[in-house]
Structure prediction request, 589 residues.
Amino acid sequence: MSDKKGNKNKQEKLETMRHSASHVMAQAVLKLFPDAKLGIGPAIENGFYYDFDLPRPLKEEDLPKIEAEMKKIIKADLPFEQKFMSREETEEYFKKSGQNYKADLLKDIPDKKISFYVTGSDDFMDMCRGPHLERTGQIGAVKLDRIAGAYWRGDENKPMLQRIYALAFENQKELDDFVELQEKLKAVDHRILGKQMDLFSFHEESPGNAFWHPRGLAIINRLIEYWREVHYAKGYVEVRTPVLMTKEVWKRSGHLDNYAEKIYLAKTFDSDDYNYAVKPMNCNGGMLIYNTRQHSYKELPLRVGEIGVVNRYESSGETHGLLRVREFTQDDAHIFCTPEQTKSELKEVIHLCLDFYKTFGLEVHHIELSTRPEKSIGSDEVWETAEKIMKEVLKEEGIVSKINEGDGAFYGPKFDFHLADSMGRTWQCGTIQLDFAQPENFNLEYTDESGEKQRPIMIHRVVYGSIERFLGILIENYGGVFPLWLAPEQVRVIPISDKHEKYSHEAKQRLEKNGISVTVDSRSETMQSRIRNAEIEKIPYVLVVGDKEEENGTVSVRPHGKKDTGMVDLDEFITSIKKEIETKENGGK
Prediction:
């Protein structure tokens, strides 16, 4: 058996165990709350959850009681047994038991015979296709994690239920290891660090979106400056397209048929029709620009970048800090090329991505090739050609990849870059998509050597992906301790007393003239308190100045997380950190 098949089987067994444990949770909750109404209880990554409509709000102290009841059921080693009832019997059962949410689910089940799983006896059974373990005693280590709210069936117009999340692993060691990792992750949670460092905030006036403070925007701007530096050197040009375009543009591209649930529609005050759409991606605007003039094969490949703001609807349950926002900035680029140039352009973008991530100290864990999804546009022949090209590129570059069947863009297959951070987690960031369909939809053309009109091939690609999300990843990867070149405030000068404030500001001016971001903290608090505050805010360098420093034109340097390294000539310090900034040393954790 291959490792891949073995891992798949292991994962399937784990999911079966987790789903079985969700039934045990429902049974335990019903024991403690006999009037509880049951929602759904699927297995998820690292565990499971179950939704309940309960007579009162749950409290944290309820979780140990529910967990204790679950352990009793697990210890009893009760059998899971499947039974079937007719649709009529099922409807009557839900009516008598008052399980109206289950009755709602039944409407979407076409089967004439409905599958239930009984745990131990007819005292508890739940409508479910399974599969399940044979007995409750086979359930591994379980720990109830937290309580959250969840709209029934994800619809904000339907009742809010109480969701209990739980962790579940094969054994206690795996569970303990996971809990220990989660505790470590709390210390680097980008939402907490972002608040401590005054980078961004979230407000109910624009749910699911970040409000960028000056320090946070400074990092965003540095990320964009680096992007431009690399891309201009690679022959990219940059454009900007409107956020609002007519709905017909998105109909033409296929987004309204294949991506409608993510698109915000808009209308003017004097119209009853939603004639506009807020762009969920930048590609359509790029193609409209391409079509403003004729193109020759001599211009190709044409590499067109756009740092574009896009909006995609995510439910309140899907949004998560910077890692999943509704409005975000994509570092998009669209490459228009000939068939002969396609492979070389794909390879060029792959290497650009690999070099890019090294700058941030992020390792490429693996690259995925995602193939044709169920909802797609374009002929079978075009998809086969596109997937064949991408497989050949991987082979020729010696890249070992994973195949992610059915997860490509609706217009073409794609490469996804999964990055590993300092905590061992993986994140999907960069994407390269090969598109034969949209040039056809938008009638894109170029003139070949013979003067004949030809259809270009289009490569969509992002490196950061979402700049907001990438920054969230960086905050956690670095634990907030940014490398000097990215830090929003690179140096803080702290005068020992008021009489040293003038020299502190002179030092600040000399640093600023050299392009270094610096502030002076001359507040009336003690020097140690101001140093401690700079440590909390993760300032890379603190310069303490007093009588000796002012007399000698020096500064006492205290790098973040370290003790005072002694007095240094200010000009020497400036030269040293300018080199550190220019070389973009990773720094961080």
About this structure: The longest strand covers residues 141-151. The CA atoms of residues 556 and 567 lie 4 Å apart.
